[in-house]
Amino acid sequence: MPRPVHSVETGDPAEMRMSPRDAPHRTAVAYQSGSFPRPAGASYQVAVIARMLAVMFGRQRSDDRIPRSYATTSNVVPGPFAEYPNRDPIAAAEHAQAYEEQRQRLQALLLASGQADELFVAKGFAMQRPDGGAHTYTTWTEGVKTLLPAADVVLLVEQPAQPRPVMTWVRWDVAAHVCADDCWKIMPDFKPPRLLTIGWPTPGQLESLKCRKLR
Q1: How far is the CA of 169 from the CAs of 1, 152, 213, in angstroms?
Q2: Please, what sign has the CA dihedral across residues 33, 103, 16, 74?
Q3: Quick check: 157 and 122 in contact, CB under 8 A?
Q4: SS3 for 3?
């Protein structure tokens, strides 16, 4: 898979010099002062919560179990859309485990602060395929503000009027190429990093994704 032009290395270290106690206030000030932009389409409150959580994890050491880059903008040349990205099964399992440990800690923080209903922390999964290869995947659901883990594959879940949701599997780099600039905001201070969903693909973008689906 080609290395993306703009990517996040999920094992890179970073450090934030802010205490968890000060995070909510200083985060709000940062938004108000323009230190970083409010993501279009995302509620101010949800964005502040996500940033606060990132600050609280900012002093953690980097998790070196995930030494791979993932596209975070649409400026990426995706690999063959019908082929699953491939990785060693052990590496896939370690990737999923690192994100699961993080997810549990984040979920506990959200519950303790009474904000569990404001933001969904998505799981990362490891999948070993019948062909012997392996990959990781996560789910992204329409209408749900989500902190996505970086993964090889994304399962998009549409919530139409009819009873059954519509599910589409696409490569991560394909999803990034089609709609990352409109739908994601990288939160690099998490260890490992996550992306905050700030929108949902437009009908045209969804059609493009479905034309490039894995299955």
Answers
A1: 17, 11, 6
A2: negative
A3: no
A4: coil
- Structure tokens, 161: 């009027």
- Kindly state the tokens that stand for 209: 């994704």
Q: Is 54 in a helix, a strand, or coil?
A: helix
Mean pLDDT of the chain: 77
CA 99 remoteness from chain centre: 11
**170 near 209, Cβ under 8 Å?**
yes
- Residue 56: pLDDT above 80? no
Q: Would you list the domain boundaries of the chain?
A: 7-211
Cα separation, 190 vs 109, whole angstroms: 14
Three-state secondary structure readout of 71-102: ECCCCCCCCCCCCCCCECHHHHHHHHHHHHHH
Round to whole Å and give the CA distance between 167 and 172: 15
Nearest to 23 by CA among 102, 100, 101, 113: 113
pLDDT at 85 over 70: yes
Task: Give the pTM.
Answer: 0.72
